[in-house]
Amino acid sequence: MEFAFTEEQAMIGETAKAFFAENATSERTRRAMAAGGIDRALWQSFCTELGLAGIALPEAHGGAGLGLVEFALVAEAAGAQVAALPLLGLATAARAISAGGSDAQKAEWLPKLASGEAIAAAEGMATAQYANGKLTGTFDLVPHGAAADMFLFVTPGNAWIVRADAPGVSVQAYTSMDQTRPLSKVTLAAADADPLPNAQAAIDALHAGGWVCLAAEALGGAQAALDRTVAYAKERVQFGRAIGSFQAYKHRLADMMIEIEQARSAVYWAACAVDEESDEAPIALHAAKSFCADTFFMCASNMIQLHGGIGFTWEHDAHLYFKRARSIQTMLGKGDFHREQVAQLILGEAA
User: Fold this and answer.
1) What is the pLDDT of residue 163?
2) CA geometry: angle at 278 spanning 268 and 200, to 5°?
3) What CATH number has the domain bearing residue 342?
4) Partners of residue 135 on adjacent β-strands
5) Could you tell me the strand order of the sheet in which 158-163 lies?
6) Which residues of the chain have pLDDT under 50?
7) Number of domains in the chain
8) Is 282 part of a structural domain of the chain?
9) Alpha-carbon distance values, 310 to 45, 80, 265, 291, 303 (Å)
10) Cα 193 vs. chain centroid, distance in angstroms?
């Protein structure tokens, strides 16, 4: 595999980084947290002005026809600012429809998702009852469920599209730790559901897109945590010298940098493996999700501690990174689950 970015990919990464750094400010993010977890103006700019929402969707349906590597570059930039956007819905629901939906489903939903006209959310559960076009069940912890216009729900071997305004759909918003990506419970009582004809392809695409998205967001957040802590270490003076000059402090920063560089390799290994349909994709995806989530949590924890007293305050952004990191650790499978999958893929029955 070739891990060097092309000129086009580098340009996408720089464009996304500049866009989020300028627009996804702390003030806007905090306002969005109090208004349902989405910065609507930022989302519209992201979708219409930059056209990045459809970066990994087919050109025939309003997308750019690129892959997960390009999407990961965007997700990394968004994660660096803890942007309050429903990006995960694009990585999961939109990619699932693209991979396993009918022509009619793709034509109806993908252009709306790429343009920002509609917001998607996805979630899975062990069982649900489906009969005569109606779906009954409860889907818990749906990211941005309260703001979604459509849902992509999956059970083993099945996938359905459900409109948020369909009769029989009720949504209960939770007060969750990460208010930049709030969670909801969606209850379906014989709600109209449109099954995807190729459910397994949809489920595979949902998982691959979701894991890469979360891993890339974690990478961006971890790098931002390190960068902000280094900047603080140069400014804060104690005992007549910058605190970054103390050996114990430098060791913690070095540990963060080492973990981040490994996480960077994991993210783009996974994204590249999926795009190239490599046999390494399953192990790369599980490795990226587990390692990057843990790396972000470690870096966010260090960010708080190395900022001292101010790092524990509501006014400082360190808590936004810490909460996002903790949330990513538990979404789409905890670290133990993914590490178990890696062990089974490597060792087989010996695991």
Assistant:
1) 97
2) 100
3) 1.20.140.10
4) 130, 191
5) 120-124, 150-155, 158-163, 194-195
6) none
7) 1
8) yes
9) 33, 20, 32, 28, 11
10) 25
